[in-house]
Write a structure and sequence with these properties.
Elements (H helix, E strand, L loop, with lengths): L11 E8 L5 E8 L5 E3 L5 E2 L11 E8 L6 E9 L5 E9 L10 E2 L5 E2 L16 E5 L2 E8 L3 H4 L2 E8 L4
Antiparallel strand pairs: 1-2, 2-3, 2-4, 5-6, 6-7, 7-8, 7-9, 10-11, 11-12
């Protein structure tokens, strides 16, 4: 919920992942006023990640946070890379206008992870350990990563990100 005194004060946001018409997983946002009347993304879905071709990469397991100092809405999610859709990296984006538009996504890491092979917890896939916290124009993103599965197993990684304002 936006607790700032800015133009979107009181809005409630929901960010989720779902299958798109292009047969990939994508991330969506909905916004509601303080009385939970829909403002954005309910009758017409509002996609967070940039549109892509058929079939596009998968974007999945999103986390969201609202920076209470400036009203920026952050969304972070895994995005697959390559045609096999097995390797992914955690990626984040920001909306400065209440979810209407999103800045180009930024990779929280340049290292790809493959949670589809052992010794990863294959049944759980990428897991449910991702998250994001935001304050003072920055975000701290955290995610499960299997970049060193043989040596360390699955690990939790984090990165601090900032918004580039034009």
């Amino acid at each position: 919920m936006d607790g700032t005194s800015g133009p979107h004060s009181g809005r409630v946001y929901v960010v989720w992942g779902s299958t798109s018409l292009n047969q990939s997983q994508d991330v969506y946002v909905a916004a509601f006023d303080p009385d939970l009347r829909p403002l954005l993304g309910v009758r017409r879905l509002k996609q967070v990640n940039p549109p892509e071709g058929f079939p596009g990469p998968d974007q999945f397991l999103p986390s969201a946070a609202l920076d209470q100092t400036n009203g920026d809405l952050w969304a972070c999610y895994y995005q697959t890379v390559g045609s096999s859709r097995r390797r992914a990296r955690f990626t984040c984006t920001t909306s400065e206008d209440g979810g209407k538009t999103w800045l180009p996504p930024v990779a929280a890491t340049t290292v790809l992870s493959d949670e589809t092979r052992r010794p990863a917890n294959v049944a759980n896939g990428y897991g449910d350990y991702e998250g994001v916290a935001a304050a003072d124009g920055r975000a701290l993103a955290a995610w499960t990563d299997g970049r060193q599965l043989k040596r360390l197993g699955e690990e939790i990684y984090a990165a601090r990100l900032g918004v580039r304002r034009g």
